[in-house]
Amino acid sequence: MKSLQKLASLERGRYYALYVIAMVLGIVVISQAYLIVTIVDDLFLNKQTFDQIVPLLFVLLGVLILRASLSYLSGKLGVKMAARVKAKYRERLLDAYGNHSLLASAKGQVGSKMSVMLDAVDELDSFFSKYVPQRIITTVVPLMILLVVFSQHVYSGLIILLTAPFIPMFMAIVGNMTQRKSEEKLDSLKAFSGRFLDTIQGLESLKLYGRSKHFKDTIQKSSENFRDTTMGILKVAFTSSLMLEFISMLSIGLVALELGLRLVVFNEITFFTAFFILLLVPEFFNSLKELGSAFHSGRSSSGAAEKIEKELKQEVKGQQWGTRTLVKPVAVKLNNLEYFYESSDFRLLGIQSDLPAIGQVAIVGKSGSGKTTLLNVIAGLLQPTSGDVMVNESKLYEYKEQDWFSQIGYITQHPYLFTGTIAENISLGVSATKEEIEKASNQAGLTELIATLPNGDNTTIGEGGRGLSGGEKQRVALARAFLKKPSVVLFDEPTTGLDLKTEQYLHESIQKLTKTSLVITVAHRVQTIKGADHILLLDQGKLVGEGTHNELLATSEYYRTLFNLQGKEERQ
Ligand SMILES: Nc1ncnc2c1ncn2[C@@H]1O[C@H](COP(=O)(O)OP(=O)(O)OP(=O)(O)O)[C@@H](O)[C@H]1O
Known about the structure:
Layout: H1 2-10, H2 12-45, H3 50-99, H4 101-107, H5 110-123, H6 125-152, H7 154-163, H8 166-201, H9 203-208, H10 212-265, H11 271-315, E1 332-340, E2 347-354, E3 359-365, H12 371-379, E4 386-391, E5 394-395, H13 401-407, E6 408-411, E7 420-421, H14 422-427, H15 434-443, H16 447-452, E8 460-461, H17 470-484, E9 488-492, H18 500-514, E10 518-522, H19 526-531, E11 534-539, E12 542-547, H20 549-555, H21 557-571
Parallel strand pairs: 3-10, 3-11, 6-9, 9-10
Antiparallel strand pairs: 1-2, 1-4, 4-5, 7-8, 11-12
The structure holds adenosine-5'-triphosphate.
């Protein structure tokens, strides 16, 4: 709970206000008991008339209203505190995912991770809205009651003092169990939502292979597992309330027995004192019990907080960017680049090359030779394990992140389309005139497609909109590049399945970009490879050759085999 306590202490002003409220509440609780006892005493023992006690009844009503208002006020302060802390956590998560979104999206499932983490943030609510106000009330009110009980009757005070510690002791044991269970709950929620998302995304493949029933069963198992963990937490909560009730009943019973004996058998105390204490003792235990249930929710928040902190720490591992300003033109050099994946044996080793400032560089190699990895390292999506991408003679990460990403365009094999019109998808929020967007879509070969759409470039595409083919999506991404006019364009050429016309469109558009930018292409097509100004030849993560097509044909057996194979495939 440490990190939560630290956060709570940042809300100092509200903390002090809660203490003041708790003190006034203590006085009000004691006054309420005192008034009830006085009214009963006056009415039944001092034989006063109803008229005589009416003013006291009004005072009692006032006290009751004040008590309700104070509880409301402390709850409200707690809710405000919770809202502020939750907002802070959401901000930190958004920052973390936002800053490292490129890396994180390379790892996949950012959306589902984010939604689970935001659920976890909501779980923090009960710590601030319930536990903190109740803990403050419980540190103040029972202490005030205990002092009053001691001042009235020492033995009753001693009974309370001896029995009360069982409650926090019990709470601590149950609390630890709850925290563990709540961490389990988050884990199974994460597993459940991850599996659910995977299955939904891959539904088509599963159906085609007749495996949807099997995966339905897996989802069911995972959802049952989540239900069982949630039920487990509830079970602990119910058992703990039962035990707390039992302990406090036992203590109140003991005090009542002792008071009864002294009042009736030994005649040592007055009815007023006995009744007064008997009204105060349940208030004492009520406050402890309420802390018990608030503690339970607080513990489950604490489990959630630890998960979030862990996640935030992980995300911080992303690359740190510098403060240097990047000015055009941009020249890129690869200086002894190495990259190791944590989860595989693949290694990109000692990549050394000077790339031209303008023109087309093709990265060529067998499947799995590290072409996409190299492209991602150049893009700044993967931080090299050693060596550097040098940009204008300085290390890439010395530049401002914003500067670099405003200078590059990345056209992946499956560009992401947001829900919105084609025009919005091309401009991506950057202010651009209608003419500029039209020009970019024309350069990317989209004009013909747009003409066939009912609302032209105002047709909604993406999730819930009109679907686009792979080649069309890449053309939208190309149009983004034409509009952005980046110095470096990274292009992951589609490996399969484009019709000749689309392929021609893409090729022509890319050629246009090579006139003004450095275009680095993971190249598979013969036409692209032959047309490249410079080729980087990769094999098993190593740069085994570089030069023009003709140079490599003349010098590399590996290149000749690869090129002939690709040619054969395309002719088939
Ligand atoms: N995120 C990852 N984590 C671990 N290993 C990875 C990851 N991405 C790729 N690899 C491994 O790195 C190696 C190189 O992959 P990469 O995608 O760079 O090759 P490629 O040359 O682009 O292949 P292809 O032409 O088939 O797309 C492969 O062996 C792959 O299994």
